[in-house]
Amino acid sequence: MNSTGTLYGVGVGPGDPELLTLKAVRILQSVPVIAYPATPQGSAQARDIAAQWLDDKREIPIAMPCMLDRGPVNQGYDEAALVIAEELAAGQDVAILCEGDPLFYGSFSYLLQRLGDRFPCVVIPGINSVSAAAAAAATPLITGEQRLTVIPATAGDEVLRRTLLDSDSVAILKPGRHRPRLLELLRETGRADDVLYIEQASRTGQRIIESFEEIPATPGPYFALFLVVRAENRLGTGLVD
Ligand SMILES: C[S@@+](CC[C@H](N)C(=O)[O-])C[C@H]1O[C@@H](n2cnc3c(N)ncnc32)[C@H](O)[C@@H]1O
Fold first, then answer.
1. Is residue 33 within 8 Å of residue 87, measured between CB atoms?
2. Domain covering 130-233, topology
3. Measured from the CB, is residue 108 less than 6 Å from ligand 1?
4. Could you tell me if 84 and 111 are in contact, meaning their C-beta atoms sit under 8 angstroms apart?
5. Residues near 67 by Cβ (< 8 Å), separated by ≥ 6?
6. CA of 2 to the centre of ligand 1 (A)
7. Among 72, 88, 105, 206, which is least packed, fewest CB within 10 Å?
């Protein structure tokens, strides 16, 4: 038996509480301590998604001051890692909640780097936002020989341009303020007709825009993504395997 606690990275899925896995629920019910990213305004998406399973836990919010500035973000991880390490050293199991999948652009990766070599660690995968968005739009993401590239909108113009030209399917995450620039790159690379834009996949505010012209050329929300798929992947066009 371990004398220290186990660190769990728990994926809570893209937003719909019904998209938590049975295993995630079992782990959340069993641990005495949870940790989760929280904004200075107190918003904590991962916690909200799993809220019904979190009664009577010791809670450790992980401060996420400003997503653009790595300095304070790293400080937030350092401070949270210290508090979490104390709990683990005292023999308490700790679950770090992560929106979507913990290892898919997940903040859990940064805590794993800080704690994974000192404590036993178990990761529970979650449904990621790309799968949730394709499901919301009922659109095949990749089939047969097709290739998928996942890329953040923070990438430079040239990398995004090359990706759009080279990949059959492209998922562009974190569009936010980059939305106008992405629309321009989609037009420039001839992929405008291939685009789907999905906000808040699986959540009550879910919005799907299937026509390039209807996507606003203004900054947009954080919880959104672009899916670029070949025309033959769209409904009614006849997939070839
Ligand atoms: C830091 S990444 C986290 C990804 C997450 N770990 C996952 O597995 O999908 C945050 C980005 O994921 C995307 N995202 C997360 N949840 C989403 C949702 N429900 N609908 C649309 N996009 C989402 C957005 O592009 C957002 O900017």
1. yes
2. 3.30.950
3. no
4. yes
5. 73
6. 34
7. 72
Q: Distance between CA atoms of 84 and 89, rounded to whole angstroms?
A: 9
Return the ligand 1 atom nearest residue 102 CA. 6
CATH number of 7-127: 3.40.1010.10
Q: Where do the structural domains in the chain lie, given as residue ranges? A: 7-127, 130-233
Q: Is the Cβ atom of 131 under 6 angstroms away from ligand 1? A: no
Place of tokens 């809220």: 51
As a residue count, the chain comes to 241
Distance 239 CA to ligand 1 centre (A): 28
Tell me which residue has tokens 């937030």. Answer: 76
Distance from residue 79's CA to the centre of ligand 1 (Å): 24
pLDDT 10s per residue in the chain (241 long)?
A: 559 999 999 999 999 999 999 999 999 999 999 999 999 888 999 999 999 999 999 999 998 875 555 677 788 899 999 999 999 999 999 999 999 999 999 999 999 999 999 999 999 999 999 999 999 999 999 999 999 999 999 999 999 999 999 999 999 999 999 999 999 999 999 999 999 999 999 999 999 999 999 999 999 999 999 999 998 887 666 565 5
